[in-house]
Amino acid sequence: MKRDWLPLLLIPVLGLAALPLVGSAASWVTLTVAGLAMGLMIFIMASGLTLTFGLMDVLNFGHGAFIAVGAFVAASVMLALAPWMTADSLWLNLAAIGPAVLAAVVVSGLLGLAFERVLVRPVYGQHLKQILVTTGGLIVAEQLLKVIWGPEQITLSRPTALRGAFLLGDIAIEKYRVLAVVVGLVVFAGLALTLNRTRIGLLIRAGVENGEMVEALGYRIRRLFVGVFAVGSALAGLGGAMWGLYQETVTAAIGAQVAVLVFIVIIIGGLGSVGGCFIGALLVGLTANYIGFLAPKVALGSNILLMALILLWRPQGLYPVAKR
Amino acid sequence: MVKQALRAILSDDLPRSRWLAVVLVAILVGLAVAPFLFPGAKSLNVAAKICVFIVLAASFDLLLGYTGIVSFAHTMFFGIGAYGVAIALTRMGASWAAVAVGVVAGLAVAIVLAAVIGLFSLRVRTIFFAMITLAVASAFAILASQLSDLTGGEDGLNYRLPAELRAPFSFGDTLFGVRLNGRLLDYYLVYLASVVLVLALLRIVNSPFGSVLMAIRENPFRAEAIGYRTVVYRTIASCIAAAAAALAGVLLALWSSQTNPDTTLSFDIMVDILLMVVIGGMGTMYGAVLGAVLLVFAQNYLQDLLAIAHKALAGVPLLANFFHPDRWLLWLGVAFILCVYFFPSGIVGRLRNRR
């Protein structure tokens, strides 16, 4: 099969095109790292959504709920471990973040299982009802978050070791963004390896291409789907926890806000494609940061413009998944 | 004679249920006499809000219930209508010419934008439309709060209405103890415009065009095969819905003399409209009417009920939070989900089935 490299070229092209506009190399590096960090965080949150859509044709408008839950759970754990967060030791800081992120992942994953069982399962194959029910789920989840954690926003400060920036000459790179890039790349590598090198991954890819055939060969695609849904929710929780630390505030509306970016990313990537989702996320992150620097007033409009341009070029997204 | 006239006015789409007819007449008459029956600023405000939201929900039902497409940008068109009038009244002063300019500009922007979004995204799949409208609407809301020179930013615009619609204007003494002033005139303007708009929408969904929309909802592939261009029909439907939503926005702007992002563009309003249409009954204009009345009532009075429950449960730590007056949306959200599962045709469907 011939690989389609053209969309991949968009990222360096975008970066190089921004270089003369930004002017100074130092700010360009800072912006690029910031854009990659933001893009990878969005990718972590979006990957599960695009896979569940590809596999079962289920579009979960309530995906934002998992993001918000992840952020809240992580924030609670980190606030409980506040002394470790403020300690001046990288290891103690990590000892606080580790459990927080783990709790976020586990709670979001379990919530994903419940969400799938209660809300999504009864409406397979009915798009209109899926959209309505999962939107309803988002409304209820957002209100429940307010019931449990109260309506006020939670302020969260990053641990000592992750504050500030690395200075290389006159280039400043925020430490937390480096961590976000590393985690994002690890998740992407993990997903790519699972999808391309394992038996489960083979089945998932086959299911995305032609679910009925996989069923006919004797595999239970439903069970596969539940697994993918739970993992996708858990990743959303991980992304939410990271996003909360990135913004340093957590509100119940965080889910709905980030979900908009997530939707733009999976539309750009082509619904169902993990590779497209990765490229889309990086494009969105980079554009948001470049435009935010060059013309802050139109920053959010830039994402819509990016989406419109890409859909003009490829109406089904960068890597359309051929089916249905 | 009367029956024929009624059929003509309702476009031959009668309530088909005694209870539904009773409720609808009660709403129609109740809103007509509201200023005399429940005098006072708050209740008049609730009544006018109900009128505006009936139009807004009915226009959303044209999309969701009749055409089977989900748009999350309906409040955007609502906001465009409201801001059109608000900006014109701010810039040109309080005159009817300004209102006319605002209405025309708002309608034009809404229709063009709806056509562009429709042609862009309805070509591929309807699920695309839901996501793209969500993205566009959130970008638009941010744009509106950023362009503070034009829109007044987060605070919105405060402006003066034409003299005839303001409280000092008077066209007579009192009637049944209610002062005949500009606010009363304003209320009846909103009321009559809503009645006309709802009847017009009823006419549209019961026309041949409406039948094509329903055919597309049931089976787009087959509708296309029979020879109807589904993209064109869906796009026209979304343009009509956008125009009606913009007019609802105009009514809101003419009623409240202030327009801000919270009351016109926020995602909360979008959620409200969704709840109204689904709980009332998708695919029946009457459902939108019922849903709008129910939800505006709930918004204004369910909180009082919850406050009582909240007080009673004050000692219980977590449970009390469930009944906090600000959590009314939680209960309606649960009702919404149950409706989608168990009563997809909403209240109207239930009423029609029991006969």
Second CATH tier, the architecture of chain B: Orthogonal Bundle
Main interface: chain pair and counts? A-B, 41 and 40 residues
| Number of H- or I-type helical stretches of chain A | 13
> Which residues of chain A sit in consecutive blocks of at least 5 with pLDDT less than 50?
none
Helix content of chain A: over 70%
Strand order of the largest sheet of chain B: 1-4
Name of the CATH first level of chain B:
Mainly Alpha
Which word captures the global form of chain A?
A: globular
Number of domains of chain B: 1
Taking all residues together, what is the mean pLDDT of chain A?
Answer: 85
Q: Radius of gyration of chain A over alpha carbons?
A: 20 Å
- The total domain count of chain A is 1
Overall geometric form of chain B? globular
Number of strands of chain A: 4
Oligomeric state of shown chains:
heterodimer
User: What is the chain-wise order of helices and strands of chain B?
Assistant: HHHHHHHEEEHHHHEHHHHHH
Quick summary of this structure?
The complex is a heterodimer of chains A (324) and B (355). Chain A is mainly alpha-helical.
Strands, helices and their partners?
The complex is a heterodimer of chains A (324) and B (355).
Chain A: H1 6-22, H2 25-56, H3 63-80, H4 82-86, H5 90-120, H6 127-149, E1 154-155, E2 165-168, E3 171-174, H7 175-197, H8 199-209, H9 211-216, H10 221-247, E4 249-250, H11 254-269, H12 274-294, H13 299-313
Antiparallel strand pairs in A: 1-4, 2-3
Helix pairs in contact in A: 1-2, 1-12, 2-7, 2-8, 2-10, 2-11, 2-12, 3-5, 3-6, 3-10, 3-11, 5-10, 7-8, 11-12, 11-13, 12-13
Chain B: H1 2-9, H2 18-37, H3 41-67, H4 74-92, H5 96-121, H6 126-146, H7 148-151, E1 157-158, E2 170-175, E3 178-181, H8 182-205, H9 208-218, H10 220-226, H11 230-256, E4 258-259, H12 261-264, H13 267-280, H14 285-312, H15 317-322, H16 328-342, H17 346-354
Antiparallel strand pairs in B: 1-4, 2-3
